[in-house]
Specification:
The protein is 37% helix and 24% strand. It is α/β, with parallel strands linked by helices. The model has no long low-confidence stretch (mean pLDDT 90).
């Protein structure tokens, strides 16, 4: 049985103190690089990073964006991210609790770009569709998703994910959800047979 979001939050909070040191796989690092490259914010842009974790994507974007907003379900991850912001004196970034389907964004905040990396795969396919619909409703001009996703049939002998906690979709399922929500796919980056980056604009 898949874990609930609250169970995911607790699991990530428990792992928060060592999370950064453990994210060293080639595929993860390539997805981070590609998400940051494709997000490409300008000095006028506000970026929302969903499933921000300890801020791997968010901090990379602060050098060019006007403002970066990080949202996550894990208190422990958010505390780690805020500590890094304080230590590094990064002033154009903020963190708070928020979910894909309830991102906790003020109605008067205009979001220009939304990013997410290695987080949406915890949702079921129907939940992904709901999340993408919410993302579209925020009217960003660009959404960049790096995640576990299947470019073909995954090799059961070499899973890139844990079926007890993860629920990855095929690339086709994600593309369909994005286009149905009003996005146009402008780039697809193959990182691994079970990981990649999708760039969508509207």
């Amino acid at each position: 049985m898949k874990k609930t979001l609250d169970e995911h939050a607790e699991r990530f909070s428990e792992a928060a103190s060592t999370y950064d040191d453990e994210q060293d796989s080639a595929a993860y690092c390539m997805c981070v690089r590609d998400v940051v490259t494709h997000a490409a914010p300008t000095s006028r842009d506000t970026v929302l990073d969903l499933g921000t974790g300890t801020g791997a994507i968010a901090f990379e974007l602060t050098s060019t964006a006007d403002r970066v907003i990080g949202r996550d379900i894990s208190t422990g991850m958010l505390e780690q991210a805020q500590t890094k912001a304080n230590v590094e004196h990064v002033e154009n970034i903020s963190f708070a609790e928020g979910r894909f389907r309830e991102p906790n964004i003020d109605s008067d905040t205009d979001i220009d770009i939304i990013t997410s990396n290695f987080a949406m795969h915890h949702l079921s396919d129907d939940e992904k569709r709901d999340a993408i619909a919410v993302i579209s409703s925020l009217e960003p001009r660009r959404f960049v998703l790096g995640d576990v996703m299947f470019f073909g049939s995954p090799n059961p002998e070499e899973p890139f994910y844990d079926p007890s906690v993860d629920d990855p979709a095929t690339v086709g399922t994600l593309v369909d959800a994005l286009t149905d929500a009003g996005f146009a796919i402008t780039d697809v980056e193959f990182v691994h047979e079970q990981a990649g980056v999708l760039v969508a604009e509207q």
